[in-house]
Amino acid sequence: MLKPDAQLQLDSFLRTVGGTSASLLMLDYDGTLAPFRTERDQAFPYPGVAPLLQEIIRTGRTRVVIVSGRDASDTIPLLGIHPNPEVWGLHGRQRLMPDGTSEMPSLDERILTALSDADRWLGYQQVRHTAEAKAASVAVHWRGLDESEAEELRGRVLLGWKPIAQQSGLDLLEFDGGVEICARETDKGDAVRTLLSEVGPNSPAAYLGDDNTDENAFRAIQGRGLSVLVRPRWRQTAAQLWLKPPEELLRFLTRWLEACQRRGAFGGETAAAVNG
Q: Which residue segment(s) compose the domain that 136 sits in?
């Protein structure tokens, strides 16, 4: 349960959502909307999440955006909602619009060579089976391993990846259950700043995430909207509020939907769709 002061803050924010025709809801995927799964293609949302997001989109009063470390095209089938939300994949580097159009800056030869070197290192260490190759990064996952096995794998990966990152200017991102070597140009905070620049300055906005990779997004929305940590156990964070999934997450989304469905300043008229 939220502390009384946090509950008051949330109540006030949702009243603002209910009093406007355009709001922005940004959400991480793995660990936030869906529980972590060793089989990443089976990481479906918590029961009840997808229908709530679908109804929020259909009110036409909230722009729903997924901001994930996954490839954007991997997220849509897992969510299974229509109309599709906008998705920013690869920690903000890739943008997939609801109509299917996508944007992603090209990688220069130096970055491509470094990513190839990172992949070869995994092959040399015989741990390529733990890897996920993406358009602008390579991630290694150790979720499901015991603590000693995970630490051994982490050490073997970073032994080769640290010098590659230092020499090429790539970033090493440690997340809950793995590590990723990726192009440095963007992060989730950049995605949030871009999205905030595209909505009106008075439009209520929120970002929900669980991982260390979401901290840049929490900082980016400071002073402009609501930041919410979503995870079973609290950790040190820049987020303003903490919700435990799935019950408190479902309650938050339910209240957001109810705020969108309220009549008030709009006299019950249908607002223009903001998700395309």
A: 109-182
Q: How confident is the prediction for the chain on average, in pLDDT?
A: 89
Q: For 168-213, write each residue's pLDDT tens digit.
A: 888 898 888 999 998 776 789 999 999 999 998 889 999 999 999 8
Mean per-residue pLDDT, 46-64:
96
Evaluate if pTM is beyond 0.85.
no
In degrees and rounded to multiples of 5, residue 95 shows phi and psi of -125, 125
With respect to residue 172, please indicate whether it lies within any of the assigned structural domains: yes
CATH number of the structural domain spanning residue 221:
3.40.50.1000
Task: In whole angstroms, give the CA distance from residue 176 to residue 167.
Answer: 25
> Domain containing 142 — which CATH number?
3.30.70
State yes or no: pLDDT of 274 exceeds 50.
no
Q: How many domains would you assign to the chain? A: 2
Inside any domain, residue 247: yes
Q: Judge whether 1 lies within some domain.
A: no
| pLDDT of amino acid 272 | 33
